[in-house]
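Look over this record before class:
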Amino acid sequence: MELILITTISYLMGSIPFGLILTKIFLKKDIRNVGSGNIGATNVLRAGNKVIGYSTLILDVSKAVIPVLYIKIIYPELVFVSSLSVFIGHVFPIWLKFKGGKGVATYVGILFCLNFMLGLVFIFSWLIIFFISKYSSLGSILSSLIIPVFIFLNSNYENEYFFIIMFVLILYTHRENVKRLINKEESKSKIY
């Protein structure tokens, strides 16, 4: 019963489409009709409002932090179930016909809850890759790969398979970006 409840609540928390909600309320736009059509923070930034974009980022991180941190404290043995459920909720939200975001901000929230060092490794990796390449998608993909590599090199971490699964999922959500990167058609991004 606890497993079902935690899975369901975590999924529903993850599926809250903050990017869509904020742009509809404050910009009177449907973010699904802007840029890439994605509901995540990167595309919200493309909508032209940095405050709404960064608010989306913070809320997408927070919707992972709240359930995962709670489960980590109360039911630590189910923290990876909660983490995966939150991520799946963001990527496949029931409210939007299972068409959600790419999950990077939510994954960052998960990482910081599971292990603060892993969150820092992801952020620093992403920043370095982004400032060199100017591609947000490339930073996200490579940083999500760096996490299981980092864990493999530091054998004191457990559940490395979870982080491999997360890399595969993030690679999947960025499949169109990968095609554009290969064809040199990917749009460069700004974070300021």
Q: What stands out?
A: The chain is about 70% helix and 0% strand. Residues 2-182 form one domain. The chain has one domain: 2-182. The two ends are 45 Å apart (CA to CA).
